[in-house]
Structure prediction request, 313 residues.
Amino acid sequence: MKITVVDPLQLPQDVVLEKFRELKCQVEMYDSRPESEEELVRRCRDADIAVVVNTPMRAGVLEKLKNLKMIAVSFTGYDHIDVDKCRELGITVSNVPEYSTNSVAELVFGMVIAAARKIIECDRAVRIGRGNSGLLGTELFGKTIGVIGTGKIGQRVCEIALAFGMRVLAYSRTRKKELEDMGVEYVTLEELLSRSDIVTVHVPLSRETEGMIGRKEIFLMKNGAIIVNTARGKIIDTESLAEALESGKITACLDVFDIEPPLPGDHPLRDPPNTVLTPHIGYYTKEALERRLEITVENIRAFIEGKPKNVVT
Prediction:
């Protein structure tokens, strides 16, 4: 059985290769993302199993890969995979849930504190010989945070927020009694947006969630509120968010965008004020990448043994 690792897994190649060799399969690895669908097809033409991070696998590509039996998505999100076509073709798709729960949740608060205490501006001030004039910050203690989506990452965000002494509101398809017992209050999306000093997004991208935060929803937010997105960029409407930032209504902490960084020079979210921006690093810690590799290999092992797990199709 041949395994093709399409995307670099962001760990030393010898470490990755040694881990995959445990499967006793033929392994072909690449150290860069494919630059075109044609190149993607060439890489995967003879593969039984393709390992991808965030390279799109669309219907046109999948139809050309006659040997493909499994796509091992080495990522939690899988909206870049045409799962309907995979289902039609009998291709199993697995993902890596929960590997970056702590990494993403910790980044949320790193970004929020950076925004609330103006840390980036403070750093610049020191470097040009200024004092603290104009750099008055705010505390998290006693503030209200609204958590949209209380899956594993959202739950961890709630727990950390409570440790900061914050009031926590939540909006999710399902309520978690353990969070309610801790003091988390589940409310409607509209109430969450209007009551929160900080809003943080933790839902997957789907037909239902794409654009769920648009002009109307941003209008409901408090003036001066902070919105955080470490989930998927398209959950928040880009143009509406850019307008709100330009007007000074809100501050945004963004790790994800409607396209993968690097952002082009004319992207509407590159230059607005009141922002803390990072280039999709929520998952990008040594510990998370090691967990991701381990789970990816175990997903493949389970598939080969006829007991697939973490299956999304």
Q: What stands out?
A: The first helix runs from residue 13 to 21. The radius of gyration is 21 Å. The longest strand covers residues 144-148.
